[in-house]
């Protein structure tokens, strides 16, 4: 079981953040082109960095905690999975926070609650408050 801990952790990360797409409307999986555009540079850059570190002997991976499946350059498949999963989870979180903040702004606008500018002063007044 130890060999699969890392992959199970990545699966858990995806499972925990998946509701952000459907419940809070993060809209990450619904825009595959943008998702790929965001993932590609991360995967390429960090994979190259990882491969260089492996090649130079800067780091290695304990075989007890990886499946043994390796990509070219002796990079464990778990590393590639990490480089894909973590940015997706970050994008889901970012998108969900943006959706929640947008909803709060809409609710404030509808209820007429004045919002503060950077100086703390109200930026608008309700009719009749002047």
UniProtKB/TrEMBL annotation:
* One Pfam family recorded for the sequence: Lycopene_cyc
Q: Which intervals hold domain Lycopene cyclase? A: 7-94
Subcellular localization is given as: Membrane
Annotated membrane topology: Multi-pass membrane protein
Q: Where are the transmembrane segments?
A: 6-26, 33-52, 80-102
Name the domain of life this protein comes from.
Bacteria
Q: In which pathway does it act?
A: Carotenoid biosynthesis
Protein keywords: Carotenoid biosynthesis, Isomerase, Membrane, Transmembrane, Transmembrane helix
Question: What protein name applies here?
Answer: Lycopene cyclase domain-containing protein
Which species does this protein come from?
Terrabacter aeriphilus
């Amino acid at each position: 079981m130890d060999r699969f801990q890392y992959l199970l952790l990545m699966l858990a990360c995806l499972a925990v953040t998946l509701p952000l797409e459907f419940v809070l409307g993060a809209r990450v999986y619904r825009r595959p082109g943008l998702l790929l555009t965001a993932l590609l540079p991360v995967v390429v850059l960090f994979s190259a960095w990882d491969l260089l570190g492996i090649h130079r002997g800067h780091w290695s991976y304990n075989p007890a905690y990886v499946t043994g499946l390796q990509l070219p350059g002796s990079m464990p498949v778990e590393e590639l999975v990490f480089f894909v999963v973590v940015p997706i989870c970050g994008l889901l979180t970012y998108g969900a926070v943006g959706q929640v903040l947008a909803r709060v702004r809409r609710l404030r606008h509808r209820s007429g609650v004045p919002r503060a500018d950077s100086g703390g002063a109200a930026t608008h007044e309700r009719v009749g408050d002047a």
